[in-house]
Task: structure prediction
Amino acid sequence: MAMKVDMSALETNFSIPCLDDGDGMHLSADSPDVPSMVLPTCADFDGFQAATKDMVKNKRGTTTLAFIFDKGVIVAADSRASMGGYISSQTVRKIIEINPYMLGTMAGGAADCQFWHRNLGNKCRLHELSNKRRISIAGASKLLANILYSYRGMGLSIGTMIAGFDEKGPGLYYVDSEGARLVGNRFSVGSGSLYAYGILDEGYRFNMSVEEAAELARRAIYGATFRDAASGGCVSVYHVGPDGWKKLSGDDVGELHYHYYPVQKTPVEQEMTDAPSTSA
Amino acid sequence: MARFDPYENNGGTCVAVAGADYCVVAADTRLSVGYSILSRDHSKIAQLADKCVLASSGFQGDIKALQKNLAAKELIYEHNHNKKMSCPAMAQLLSNTLYYKRFFPYYAFNVLGGLDSEGKGCVFTYDAVGSYERTGYSAQGTGSTLMMPVLDNQLKSPSPLLLPARVSSSSLEFELFNPLMVVFLTPLSESEAVDLVKDVFASATERDIYTGDRLEIVVINSSGTQREYIELRKD
Result:
């Protein structure tokens, strides 16, 4: 007997008209995982999305990075959120703790990342309860990637890395709102990622101590905040090992600058003395 | 060619400041459209639960709908759980409510203020589609870019993301149930915080055409909610 393949994960949900069942939660019975969202009733959907994007100027802009080395995964991020040219916050948590052994990074739209990471955390917990074992990093990233694929073209802006430690060892996946899901050893995401890659690629070795790896990550994020206007605030560095994640450090980049480049006292050649005061 | 244009900006500014055992939420009462003032007496503040107050600026039509939506959900919560919603719970509900309209956003810039379950002040600040963060103080609206630098100057404390955590000698700090979430509250007393809010609104009124007329200040503390009105420049 032929088995009917379950394609529900690949269905697009946004075209389902919103059914308000009274408590406004908009969770339809067909796909309980994915909320069905209200859509504007206009002919030009894309034009409307473009116009509202300019109008509401959502928080975005960032530098995040993650890499695998012999002792696990290092994850680091800045903490600035900008709305257009205005810095709306310098204390944003861009490294999201999905569960005690998995981290997600936030780049792109702040609301999109926060909401879908929370949704992913719920799904991971449900998986644990249904299957009596933790979900793998590959599985968690696939759950997220499938959801984002179903919203492809709608204007979500998410560039995230799912990093963690499971039975297969350290895992790192890059997932974005275009539907991409890439496995890799080294990623940097965000407006400052190119600057971070320059430092990260140069200093990376597979065999490093945890402190060396953390310092490399910190230096790379610092470098990105130095050159990218949309990145700044504090650098947070996390390490994910076999026992789960641990936050290693949080440093203000303004202070880090003077730590890396202390003020040099310039040698004085000739001291100026006060001019002799003229007596009246 | 007629474009679908369901939004307008009614202007105004909202501020909230959290203290050790109080929270101050304030907003002006001017409602404008373009260069016209439609009302000098329109409140932007809604009380959602006994220790939780929402102040929103933006499109007042969407804000009215959002406030009604949240009040209804709060009532359902009360019926289901036999208690009123706490401020942190309402904060997440507001975030989800805003995000469910991600593709047709509420044009509302919100600040939620109140007391958390331990009685300490809390302020949550949002963008239009629901990204939120707990902070010690925040301003949203047309005058926010004028007010935030002044509030930063007076109230800013070491970032909660610093590790090892840094405490400035004058600020108060505490850990939420998750030890990684250290939030700083202003050490100012309630009356000092109210004075600061009045000063900051007086300054913004000078330079923002959409802010003025009257200031509504709501203070939430252990004895309940008090409301105060201060006149601002009407020009």
Observations:
- The longest strand of chain B covers residues 108-115.
- Chain B touches chain A at residues 3-4, 6-7, 69, 72-73, 76, 95-105, 107, 125, 127-133, 135, 145, 159-163, 180 (CB under 8 Å).
- The radius of gyration of chain B is 17 Å.
- Residues 13-232 of chain B form a domain with the Glutamine Phosphoribosylpyrophosphate, subunit 1, domain 1 fold (CATH 3.60.20.10).
